[in-house]
Amino acid sequence: MRSFPFWQRWLWIASLGMIIFGCAMALLNRTVVFVAFNRAIDAGFWRAALPEGVPAFQGWAYGAWGATVAGWGLMCALLVRHAFAQHVAWSWRAMAASIGLWFVLDTAISAANQVWVNVVLNTILLAVFAIPLAATRRACLAPRPAGG
């Protein structure tokens, strides 16, 4: 499949983007870099100024959230670079299942709490990962010839 390297590269870049975004969120979440993002989330919970203690809690929560995103991105990057590159079926299934589980849970919780910025972000990220996974499904899940 000639297009497989293109889609693999796409997933590699998307995974690196997740690592960078996660590290930035973990380390810079209470700086000017994330002001717009934080305000969009805050709007779902507070109509006025943040109550005392909330910014400190958000610093911790967004830091842990960012670290999780960075770790997930690293796992995806390593899968893409190694097992996925060899068309190993379990690596495709692992990525598809982890992305599906993340999307359903995170998006449902975000929608239930009316954090629409996260619903939109999740939908974009789902497309970024689902498109190349759909394009490589056959290459990774097709039965392999005996001895090959």
Please provide a written account of the structure.
With about 150 residues, this protein is mainly α. It has one domain (about 5-140). Helices cover about 75% and strands about 0% of the residues. The protein has helices at about 5-30, 35-40, 55-80, 90-110, 115-140. Helix 1 runs antiparallel to helix 5 (about 115-140). The longest helix is centred in the middle third of the chain and has 28 residues, at about 55-80. The chain is elongated and about 65 Å long. The two termini are about 15 Å apart.
Number of domains: 1
Structural class: mainly alpha
Largest sheet entry: none
Low-confidence stretches: none
> What's the average pLDDT?
93
Rg estimate, integer Å: 18 Å
N- to C-terminal separation?
Answer: 16 Å
* Tally of separate helices: 5
Question: What is the general shape?
Answer: elongated
Order of helices and strands: HHHHH
Task: State the helical fraction.
Answer: over 70%
Give me the count of strands: 0
Q: In percent terms, what proportion of residues is strand?
A: under 5%
Key terms:
148 residues, mainly alpha, 75% helix, 0% strand
Summarize the structure in short.
With 148 residues, the protein is an all-alpha fold.
Topology readout:
Elements: H1 4-28, H2 35-42, H3 54-81, H4 89-112, H5 116-141
Helix pairs in contact: 1-3, 1-5, 4-5
